[in-house]
Amino acid sequence: MKYTLLILLILFTQLFYAQPSRRHYVGLAAGPSFPTGDFKSTNLSDSTSGFAKTGVGVTFNYSYRITHNLGVVVMINYASNGFNYQAYTDSLEKIHKTHNVSVLNNSNWGGGGILAGLFLTFPFSDYFSWDVRASFGFYGVYSPQVTIKAVSKDDPNDKSEYYREKASAFNYAYSFGTGFKYALAKYYLLLFVDYYSAPMQFKNATGWDWNDQPYQTSFKQNISTLELTLGLGYFF
Questions:
Q1: Do residues 31 and 194 lie in contact, with contact meaning Cβ atoms separated by under 8 Å?
Q2: Closest CA to 31 of 236, 232, 235, 234
Q3: Which residues contact 169 (CB under 8 A, 6 or more apart)?
Q4: Which is nearest to 219 in space by CA: 126, 158, 146?
Q5: Rounded CA gap, 23 and 236, in Å?
């Protein structure tokens, strides 16, 4: 019986604990993406307000540990954040009190990119560690498609419409994050919080104005999110 218990204990240990000497790991994690700063702002008088809502973020990363505490990381990130059309509608109605306003949109803020940087790892044990990482790279973003309809309260036949097509932008991005890894066999359980920021200049925004005339314009938007992700990593 003692030998049987010993064999089971060895098998259990091999199954649920990692080899701490492994230097590489790849991970995939997903979770909520919280807009911050100008990206979240619903101040219509500020042209940099993004009216972004909480969405979802997905991160794939490859990490290589150079020394016991220092390593390099490459991250591929994608995030999708909804457009707060209700707050946009309310803001427009406060300005245009003589009209009933409705805002329609059928797309989100969406963006992704690739970043590379360094990470520090602080092991509490052979199987549980705390990581801090920072990276820099490039990001591409699409703005949402938006249609605004206005109807005069005094004359239902007095209608107008404003339309903005999707626009794209590409620029540098940076990220700071921290999180925990827990080793199980050849896998890590991952729990991370990462902040992403990318200042965007949309130069190809097109649509139709209130006079039903085509237009082309540009606008700035600082994209910034805080992403809480849970996932799984494989180390080798």
A1: no
A2: 232
A3: 140, 141, 143, 200, 201, 202, 203, 221
A4: 146
A5: 7
Token couple for 153: 């309260």
Cβ–Cβ under 8 Å, residues 57 and 227: yes
DSSP H or E stretch at residue 5? helix 2-16
For 100-119, how does the pLDDT look when each residue is reduced to its tens digit (9 = 90+)? 888 887 789 999 999 999 99
pLDDT tens digits along 58-103:
999 999 999 989 999 999 999 999 999 999 988 888 888 888 888 8
- The backbone torsions φ and ψ at residue 5, rounded to the nearest 5 degrees and listed phi first, read -65, -35
Query: How far is residue 232's CA from residue 221's CA, in Å, rounded to a whole number?
Result: 33
3-state secondary structure of 91: helix
Let me know if 107 is exposed, middle or buried by CB neighbors in 10 A (0-12, 13-18, 19+). middle
- The token duo for 66 is 């150079």
Query: 203-226 in b/e burial notation, b at 16+ Cβ within 10 A?
Result: eebebeeeeeeeeeeeeebebbbb
Give the side-chain half-sphere CA count within 13 A for 201. Answer: 3
Res 121: pLDDT: 95
Domain 2-85+111-141+170-202+217-235 matching CATH 2.40.160.20: the answer reads: yes
Burial of 192 (0-12, 13-18, 19+ CB in 10 A): buried
Number of Cβ atoms within 10 Å of the Cβ of 34:
21
